[in-house]
Amino acid sequence: MSGSSFGQIFRVTTFGESHGIALGAVVDGCPAGLSLSEEDLQKDLDRRKPGQSKLVTQRKESDAVKILSGIFEGRTTGTPIGLIVYNEDAKSKDYESIKDLFRPGHADYTYFKKYGFRDYRGGGRSSARETVARVAAGAIARKVLAREGIEIVGYVAQVGPVKIKKIDYAQIRQNPLFCPDPDAVEAMTRVIQEAQSEKDSVGAMVEVVAKGVPAGLGEPVFDKLDAALAGAMMSINAVKGVEIGAGFKVVEMRGSENCDPITPAGFKSNNAGGILGGISNGDEIVVRLAVKPTSSIAIEQETIDIHGRPAKIATKGRHDPCVGLRAVPIAEAMMALVLVDHFLRNKLSRLG
Amino acid sequence: MSGSSFGQIFRVTTFGESHGIALGAVVDGCPAGLSLSEEDLQKDLDRRKPGQSKLVTQRKESDAVKILSGIFEGRTTGTPIGLIVYNEDAKSKDYESIKDLFRPGHADYTYFKKYGFRDYRGGGRSSARETVARVAAGAIARKVLAREGIEIVGYVAQVGPVKIKKIDYAQIRQNPLFCPDPDAVEAMTRVIQEAQSEKDSVGAMVEVVAKGVPAGLGEPVFDKLDAALAGAMMSINAVKGVEIGAGFKVVEMRGSENCDPITPAGFKSNNAGGILGGISNGDEIVVRLAVKPTSSIAIEQETIDIHGRPAKIATKGRHDPCVGLRAVPIAEAMMALVLVDHFLRNKLSRLG
Amino acid sequence: MSGSSFGQIFRVTTFGESHGIALGAVVDGCPAGLSLSEEDLQKDLDRRKPGQSKLVTQRKESDAVKILSGIFEGRTTGTPIGLIVYNEDAKSKDYESIKDLFRPGHADYTYFKKYGFRDYRGGGRSSARETVARVAAGAIARKVLAREGIEIVGYVAQVGPVKIKKIDYAQIRQNPLFCPDPDAVEAMTRVIQEAQSEKDSVGAMVEVVAKGVPAGLGEPVFDKLDAALAGAMMSINAVKGVEIGAGFKVVEMRGSENCDPITPAGFKSNNAGGILGGISNGDEIVVRLAVKPTSSIAIEQETIDIHGRPAKIATKGRHDPCVGLRAVPIAEAMMALVLVDHFLRNKLSRLG
Amino acid sequence: MSGSSFGQIFRVTTFGESHGIALGAVVDGCPAGLSLSEEDLQKDLDRRKPGQSKLVTQRKESDAVKILSGIFEGRTTGTPIGLIVYNEDAKSKDYESIKDLFRPGHADYTYFKKYGFRDYRGGGRSSARETVARVAAGAIARKVLAREGIEIVGYVAQVGPVKIKKIDYAQIRQNPLFCPDPDAVEAMTRVIQEAQSEKDSVGAMVEVVAKGVPAGLGEPVFDKLDAALAGAMMSINAVKGVEIGAGFKVVEMRGSENCDPITPAGFKSNNAGGILGGISNGDEIVVRLAVKPTSSIAIEQETIDIHGRPAKIATKGRHDPCVGLRAVPIAEAMMALVLVDHFLRNKLSRLG
């Protein structure tokens, strides 16, 4: 059944596979009157783009986006915005040797079980390449949010055992790791390179923060803002955990310690991560996601083939040693898509 | 905007407030032919019911459910199933003294900001009492799943600092903590009672496992099974984090360690928590949620009133010292609702 | 699959059968702050109620509606509004003799084919009694619309061969036929009574008009306002045709005759029925529906039983000789539900 | 708000404007395993294509469709199918003279009122050119339906005052009018040419029939099959009325005449048009739609400009004198989209 659409009001539908002709999205429900150009989208796409440092996959894609519809004289018309990015550097031959094998940790096995056969070229639809469409759509969401003073910033908070100790937003774009702590960059880089040299990969934690979000966003009881964020983040490839504010730390906290006291000047702490009862409280929204180590590794692993026979596999090709790094712009895009949808939904909460 | 419906195919819509006349749900999309009685629902409701031990709120509700429609001669007809549970022991007067104050950690502030005014009696719609409707609907989902050999079991895995060390399913219903480790029950009880005696509350971690789930459930790329589970669990009151399988542990794992090798006999490990690429892989589905300590505590806290003036508040009334305990049947219900919806959706994946 | 919900923003989900315990609805998405009481709903329900004249079914139902949730201190809170109407005068024994027979023109055959068995008591879910929930929900929609100056009025425009010749809104509530032309009442009554005395029934045409609708409502290209109205009206029991404005007359019209000229004072004619390109143009919205003659007639008809064997059937019980009459408040309710949903959706069309 | 998606399971989202870069669709929810090629789609697109006879617009478009995703080795993979058709012969200059004027009968006025400004080139999104995407998506639906033995055929049943007197399916593709009665072709042609020579246009009635539809399709009470069809057909440009089976004739019928008697061999008549209680009954589904005369006419008409000042307008450019003709393949496509969606939904009606 269909599952490639996101959002109720600002609705994004994506299509495309890793080695298909093109990837794209239709953004339906963007309000009319937004000034929008391809450059607005390209900026975010360029941050997600592969091949930008030695720490990521060497696949070369310009990821040039084309807006096909929904814009007239530089502004959105209120009609669906069609977006397309053609694939350029797909090397499908790399995958022929594994077309009958299931790569451990990948979706090969489950797609095969679900659909009866699968597009084995680069993971097909299950590839993180699909997120190019999310980032393009997310860039439109960000422009709507920016007009409201809402800003989203993501960064890598941990790579393997290396954690950031401080957050300097200005640093994030100064290094290929999206790391806000300049003192952690070297250690993180070493952890990744070590794994890579051992044909292995490494996990990471990404943190995304939204500033300037007004109180009131979120639709209880199922479409709560935190529920939407959790679903959105967990839909990103390789994510295995999501937490808001204090997150898993609340398990060992006392109520008196966890409750954020309220003062006329605002909340005294932000264990809530900006969300109470599923609705934004006006404080910063803070979400963290756990990204597993890349499943494509060159170390030989046990598997089976499509006939159920035991086999060995070592994944070659061009892979990220730490996919967590590249999750940053994607997580930002998903945060933007959640917030714009809930920002619009919230306009209907009260009689005008 | 509407946000009280869950599921695409097996669609549940709930209504009702903590101190209103009744709570209820409409379950639309349950296939025809399922044998179903009020007793089937009551069993699960009784597990969620307040007042069953000294460790939970002393509010007394029979939580007797009535099926209003959708059943004929003991079987579902394929038409919507209306469910209703009348409130009996709402003590609204307890709340009059705080009607102009925002309780820290609660949704009081955000509901007020969103809707312009709020039903202050017992938290209104934001109360965990709302979940009575989820549990009733979840019981129907479980009956559908049971026919397919799918079983769901939840338990408390940690209370404050006390973690379980083993899992004995038979023990879960033997203690009021839904604890699967008999050796942990005493320590957990002590942690809760200590907090209670200090007018405080304590957090917990709940784990939910689904057995017998076939491979193939989940609809990429946004309606992935893990995305649906994360959203569903995060929509439960007081949940601040959700993880699948190895969860946040993946951050510090290597790929070679995290990838579950595949053999003709199945997966050799289950770091994936039963989900690969957003689709069930046939292994056990394992989800964990972090539940914050109850926000209603008798320790005085800083807050403001609806006019923005500073104030002090100490919440009296009948409250759970550890809401995490009562989250167990609710988390099971949400797991059941996600699985039944995706079980039905998956029937449409391939040409018949 | 679920199909008992209507609307994207102002979302109504109904439940209940003709001879079940109760009928009801959940209205999710009504904005907060609307002053609302049970009396507001009862007024419309009383207009739909059976047993009010000799021209309609003699089933006696008080149709007293109870609001279960979503209201606090006389105003909507923005949370789901639960509505319930208990059945009182269901005479299920009337139906036992036909439980294995399919009544021609009814849904007996199709429900049996779809679901494998059916609730044969009074048509179960397929009965027009289900519309009690729509009328209750529609009354809430009307209150929202009234604040915007939008008013909806329906009437019978034709009964069998008798057509109205003029429209006097004040007359509609003066006769049990909802007829706006006092000169047509007698002839219409005679046509119905003649059919009744011959154990037969008669068709009718209903017209519904909405005044005060601002330009801009409707969401191309699939959720156009006329598309929504057509779907809504066709979902009413016994409706076989829907037209907007000039309707089927356009087939024989020339473009020069059909196009409504635009002047600074407004449109010079209203062949469009108030909708252009699927969006309201500010003129009156005019919809007509063809309602078939009641299928339950006492004249013996050919049919088959559930085993496929030929049989004869003559439907006894308490039936409307002209269901079209009772379709008037239902059509008004559906118009209200469409308009309120699109009124709210349209608020999101442009950047604020 | 978004409104460019159709269907719940087999979900189509379209984008594109008359004079934009491209039109397209994403079909999400097509089951895996369907053999599909661009030729399958092109066949239907070629029937809709402009410029094929003197009776239609002379705009020249190859309407060549490209499948961008969702197909692997000739079969659908279960992932979204991206479709694109580039515009080739858009002559936007034709429209500059009317960019500040509202064409009567068109969506110019309402789009302007809704969105605050509009893409005036060829009607932008409101142009019937948008339906190219529907026809492409509909062709996929037809392939799914064909496997089930379901076939859809549409034709022109009336042009102005000229009605068909017989239906010979073999004739439909033999003339540019999609007319099934060879004896009516000449008169219809004359009516159109007369209107054209007088700078005017003419209305038409289209009939669409589905054969081989099994009993059981349709989801009461709002997503009834007839409700879905009515909404789908009314969403087609220029349609002002929809009827099923006997349609508006039921107004003057008696119940005894209208009820289709049931025999072991099937229904003795088909006044129901194949739908009872909103569910298909196994008989032919028969839908008729009234298509208004083309609003673009060269006769001068009264209008206003965007500043509200009176003006005169005579629409030049390349227009169909009878848009009803070109509605035939579009109506077939919409019928196919409704049926495939309900065919899939119905698979979930009963426990397997």
From TrEMBL, chains A, B, C, D:
NADP(+) binds at R48, K54. InterPro entries: Chorismate_synth, Chorismate_synth_AroC_sf, Chorismate_synthase_CS. It catalyses: 5-O-(1-carboxyvinyl)-3-phosphoshikimate = chorismate + phosphate. The keyword NADP applies. SUPFAM superfamilies: Chorismate synthase, AroC. It is an enzyme of class 4 (lyase). Keywords: Amino-acid biosynthesis, Aromatic amino acid biosynthesis, FAD, Flavoprotein, FMN, Lyase, NADP. The keyword Amino-acid biosynthesis applies. Pathway: Metabolic intermediate biosynthesis; chorismate biosynthesis; chorismate from D-erythrose 4-phosphate and phosphoenolpyruvate: step 7/7. One of its GO terms (cellular component) is cytosol. Its EC number is 4.2.3.5. GO terms for biological process: amino acid biosynthetic process; aromatic amino acid family biosynthetic process; chorismate biosynthetic process. GO terms for molecular function: chorismate synthase activity; FMN binding. Reduced FMN (FMNH(2)). It comes from the Bacteria. Its cofactor is FMNH2. Coiled coil: none annotated. FMN binds at R125, S126, S127, N237, A238, G277, K292, P293, T294, S295, S296, R318. Homotetramer. Belongs to the chorismate synthase family. This reaction introduces a second double bond into the aromatic ring system. This is Chorismate synthase. The lineage of its organism: Bacteria, Pseudomonadati, Nitrospirota, Nitrospiria, Candidatus Troglogloeales.
